[in-house]
Amino acid sequence: MRMPLMASPRIVEGIFAAINKPKSISSAQVLRDIQHAFNQSEIFKPWLEVERNKRNLESSTQQRRRRNKRLQVKIGHGGTLDPMATGVLIVGVGKGTKQLQDFLGCTKTYEATVLFGAATDTYDVLGKVVSKAPYNHVDRNTAEKALFQFRGSIEQRPPLYSALRMDGKRLYEYAREGKEVPREIAARPVTTESLEIREWLPSGSHGYKWPDAEIDEGEKRVAENLVSPPEAAEGDAVRKYLLSTPGPQQGKKRTRQSEDDDAAPSSGTPPGKRQERSNDARSSSVIQDRSVPDDELPESDKGPGVNTSKSAETPTLSHGPPAARLSMTVTSGFYVRSLCHDLGQAVDSLGMMCDLVRTRQGDFELGRNVIEYDVFSESEDVWGPQVSQTLNGWQKSLDEKSVTST
Hints:
The protein is 25% helix and 21% strand. It has ten helices and 16 strands. The strands form four sheets. Strands 1, 2, 3, 4, 7, 10, 13, 14, 15 and 16 form a ten-stranded mixed sheet that branches. It is globular, with a radius of gyration of 24 Å.
């Protein structure tokens, strides 16, 4: 009597979900944490078993190459986020990692906060201050008018602290090593489908502040040779102040993750509809320090006698610079940090990004179909049903597309 054949365990893989990435953790670390949970799960045991059998059939040469590589669930993401950013991080497993490229080219929606009055080498509050400028003249109306030049098809210069390559080397590697880039970073065509101010934060109404650290002389030389500061228009507010050089700073040197926080490699060349916009709005770095009256500086920058005991995470309210919360939908290759930096110059001041949330990427949107990162610290009984449901849905959509195309 023949024994009935046992049904083979189903191999579960695909685009399983989008994760709500928390702040202060890299996209790579999010993947490692999820991968650790998957390696020990019942859901992915069949996948790991199939991969183990494949490896056993490999040639001795291939097996020697893998001898130090632990068998783990294959996992990847569809567009990285900077450690300071939060929001939608699309994750694929197994064969689903091959589909992640499709998400690099889709539109993304962000909410970001720009803080006026200073610029940093990284274009955000994680960097070092390279310049300061007046900001009392900056109001919502001024910023609204400046936003017009950043809508539609534009040319945007990526930050030096980015994962783009030049002559086979990441740009951030040149910056970390204190080396000059071989040539000026070229502006790239991107498209802004929508861009609005969601909320205006007047001086003294928020807790954002500039970083305490400033670039040292070595870093300053690298930045100066990268891009010259934009020319101030005759009679404008900036020209009223003398230029001075920020001195070297003591203390801990900041580091930045080797990833593109807010951009994926551009997959196309959108038409340059408004590429004639001024150099002021397109320049990528400002090196000279524009001396600012003491009454325009945040309390923490006014010298001794001011309580600065609170950390950067919970800054003290001050009568410092204004800020604005922006909402935008953009195409692949767009750097939100560059927008904040360029907007500061466009309003005859300076700016840096101090907060970033990716609220949507493709069909994944916060509050609708995104899994919270913290759930993976729980048992498989908690996150397992969500992962299985999304993977099964992904496979079903592929099957339907296959039937339609035949």
